[in-house]
Design brief:
446 residues; alpha+beta; Rossmann fold; Chorismate Mutase Domain, subunit A; 3 domains; five-stranded antiparallel beta sheet; 22 strands
């Protein structure tokens, strides 16, 4: 068997092992224009049985001056191979604390997930050297088993699956085959920029590692598989612990406290990952499993990280995507002449709607009101003849979620709180049996 046949057979054999339904599967190659993805696309495009079931996507991040040339090169290659290509141009803005390469990776995978069709398989050209770099980077960052498991060969992704059929092949093998096949590819100049951790590892560290341990890539791949198997066992344990601690979509704090600290952290990590939120770092995970669970019952503690928040209300833990803080300048409202007040920042609108059974006495409603958000210390009297109550206590009693409490519009006359959206109306403007003009205060949420 010729060398070319050996390379192609290894790629197709690995793909067939990962995708038992390969002849019928619809495939989408993430085509960067580099040698790895070019070689993968060329191998697949040469298979007549895949014709009509293969396409490619190129993401143009716009980070490099030559990115337009790379997109054009991918278009020419796809046309030469007879493969449909979709080019998606985007703009990358790193989030606070995020590296440029991390931001580009996040945006790229987001686009690939969005463009993946139902039951389609995304193929990326990560190889054994990429896996070695990933394992070492994760180790140097102090990662646990999920990080050391590095890149799985097959995983759920978007509407379908993500498969990496080149993980058993090294970069030198791929480049040798591509040259022999007469393929052309682009070189990303940023791959030589040693300011990036991966590039520093690739050009400064790994040559010395391979000189001493030539089989380092294969050994790291084995370690990654062992870590993945260990993580699978921990996930099985965590699944049972989470099911036993489940309280609706949340978790019971007493049941979590009954676990050992190690199992508690394992269960919390699994619960967060299952909800699709980013995992917390070690410090925040320890905070979740310890101080948050041990805080006093009325403290409503919370832990935040990367747009995610876990909070404890009474004896129940819930998790949420963090809602951006809303800045709302006080708004003037004349409800008798303008019954609807549009609220900014996605807060919806308030309406005074006439109603024969409404709880609001229009005769008692002042002509000019002010609408704003909470500042702390607000009080009102929801029941005539009873003491005033703090807004904080009312919201707690009504079990209004913490992330919503800062978004509830409050209606004032001067400094006096008269209404909390459509949740409570102060006794001073409540309708009675003798009220002749009544209305309802309605908060139309966005």
């Amino acid at each position: 068997m010729r060398v070319a046949d050996t390379f192609e057979a290894r790629v197709l054999g690995c793909l067939a092992e990962l995708l038992p339904d390969l002849p019928r599967a619809r495939l989408c190659v993430a085509l960067s224009g580099g040698v790895d993805s070019v070689a993968l696309l060329a191998v697949l495009a040469a298979r007549p049985e895949l014709r009509g079931r293969l396409r490619a996507v190129h993401v143009d991040h716009g980070l490099q001056a030559r990115s337009g040339e790379w997109a054009a090169h991918c278009g020419a290659l796809a046309a030469q191979l007879g493969v449909p290509l979709e080019v998606v141009a985007t703009h990358v803005t790193p989030q606070p604390g995020e590296s440029p390469e991390g931001a580009a990776r996040r945006v790229r995978y987001g686009i690939l997930a969005a463009t993946l069709r139902e039951s389609e398989v995304l193929l990326t050209a990560h190889h054994a050297d990429d896996q070695l770099e990933t394992v070492l980077l994760q180790l140097l960052r102090g990662a646990g088993l999920p990080g050391l498991a590095a890149m799985p060969a097959c995983a759920a992704f978007g509407h379908g699956r993500l498969v990496r059929p080149l993980l058993d092949l090294e970069r030198t093998e791929i480049e040798a085959w591509a040259r022999g096949a007469g393929l052309r590819w682009v070189e990303d100049d940023s791959n030589r920029d040693e300011r990036f951790d991966r590039n520093y590892l690739r050009w400064r560290v790994l040559p010395a590692v391979r000189a001493r341990w030539p089989a380092a890539a294969r050994a790291a791949a084995r370690s990654a598989r062992h870590a993945a198997e260990g993580q699978d066992l921990l996930d099985e344990l965590a699944r049972g612990d989470v099911e036993r601690a489940a309280d609706g979509a949340g978790l019971s704090a007493p049941r979590l406290r009954a676990l050992t600290p190690e199992r508690r952290r394992n269960a919390l990590r699994f619960w967060i990952a299952q909800a699709g939120h980013p995992l917390p770092d070690t410090r925040r995970l320890v905070e979740l499993a310890g101080p948050l669970l041990e805080a006093r019952a009325d403290a409503n503690p919370q832990v935040l990280w990367r747009g995610t928040r876990v909070q404890r209300h009474a004896e129940r833990l819930t998790q949420h995507a963090e809602v951006a803080a809303v800045a709302l300048e006080p708004l003037e409202w004349e409800p008798h002449s303008h019954r609807v007040l549009e609220l900014p920042a996605g807060l919806g609108r308030l309406e005074v709607a006439p109603s024969r059974r409404g709880a609001l006495d229009l005769e008692a409603l002042p002509p000019r009101l002010t609408v704003r958000l909470r500042r702390g210390g607000e009080r009102l009297r929801p029941v005539r003849g009873r003491p005033t109550r703090t807004l904080k206590r009312l919201l707690q009693t009504e079990h209004v979620a913490l992330e919503q409490r800062e978004r509830v519009p409050l209606v004032f006359c001067g400094e006096e709180l008269l209404a909390v959206a459509d949740l409570w109306v102060d006794a001073r403007i409540q309708a009675s049996a003798g009220s002749t003009r009544r209305a309802r205060l309605i908060w139309h949420r966005a």
